[in-house]
């Protein structure tokens, strides 16, 4: 079963998922979470052993990831994880704001009681994980990654645009990669943003929600760029 791509990490394998799809999800997760760092070479033989898949299937998967700009195909030199840059981060932030704000308008106009219930449930799960993170339980970071997307996705789910949600989910994950590389949770500021966004969603206040998303993303960029590894990036 294929859903919006974002939160590939969150999905549970089912009987319909092919080996290739499962490896695609795992490899993509490893890139987004920084397990495979930016600029690192993806050696096909080692990757074949790590992910238990044939070289030909692995090449196909890497080409799919290349289409998302998560992997660079270097011709005869093989593949490497895409590097990061301040410019790409800014572009991803702008694109996420445009897509998410548009999806909010569509979703708020058509959302029903079931949609509201899904937002309440998603925020409840997210808030519980954020409380653990604020208490210093950094082992919950992966849970936060999953719950953060589930919450944002729930808010825009009633937009009923598969294409829009697919593009948003891809951009969301690519933006998330920068947060994971920065390696620190933004703390109470993020929690407060999510609470306000939750309230605006239930009030169907699209303009208010758009303002929160815009500041939420912009503040995230500023937080990332304060980390030492990004200070010298072009």
From TrEMBL:
Q: Which domain of life is it from?
A: Bacteria
The question of whether Transcription regulation is a record keyword is answered with yes
Q: Which InterPro entries match?
A: GntR_C (IPR011711), TF_FadR/GntR_C (IPR008920), Tscrpt_reg_HTH_GntR (IPR000524), WH-like_DNA-bd_sf (IPR036388), WH_DNA-bd_sf (IPR036390)
What would you give as a GO molecular function for this chain, any one?
DNA binding
Extract the Pfam families matched here.
FCD (PF07729), GntR (PF00392)
* Domain HTH gntR-type as annotated: residue spans: 17-84
Keyword list, A-Z: DNA-binding, Transcription, Transcription regulation
Query: Does the record carry Transcription regulation as a key word?
Result: yes
User: What is this protein identified as?
Assistant: FCD domain-containing protein
Query: What organism is the protein native to?
Result: Endobacterium cereale
């Amino acid at each position: 079963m294929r859903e919006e791509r974002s939160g590939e990490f969150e999905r549970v394998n089912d009987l319909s998922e092919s080996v290739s799809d499962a490896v695609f999800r795992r490899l993509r997760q490893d890139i987004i979470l920084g397990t495979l760092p930016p600029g690192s070479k993806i050696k096909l033989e080692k990757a074949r052993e790590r992910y238990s898949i044939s070289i030909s299937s692995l090449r196909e998967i890497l080409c799919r990831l290349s289409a998302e700009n998560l992997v660079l195909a270097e011709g005869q030199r093989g593949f490497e994880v895409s590097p990061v840059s301040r410019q790409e981060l800014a572009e991803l932030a702008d694109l996420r704001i445009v897509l998410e704000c548009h999806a909010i308008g569509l979703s708020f106009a058509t959302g029903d009681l079931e949609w509201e219930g899904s937002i309440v449930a998603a925020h409840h799960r997210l808030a519980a994980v954020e409380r653990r993170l604020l208490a210093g339980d950094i082992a919950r970071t992966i849970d936060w990654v999953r719950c953060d997307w589930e919450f944002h996705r729930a808010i825009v789910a009633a937009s009923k645009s598969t294409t829009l949600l697919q593009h948003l989910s891809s951009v969301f994950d690519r933006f998330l990669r920068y947060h994971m590389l920065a390696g620190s949770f933004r703390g109470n500021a993020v929690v407060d943003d999510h609470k306000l966004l939750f309230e605006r969603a239930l009030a169907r206040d699209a303009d208010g929600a758009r303002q929160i998303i815009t500041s939420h993303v912009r503040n995230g960029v500023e937080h990332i760029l304060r980390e030492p590894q990004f200070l010298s990036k072009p």
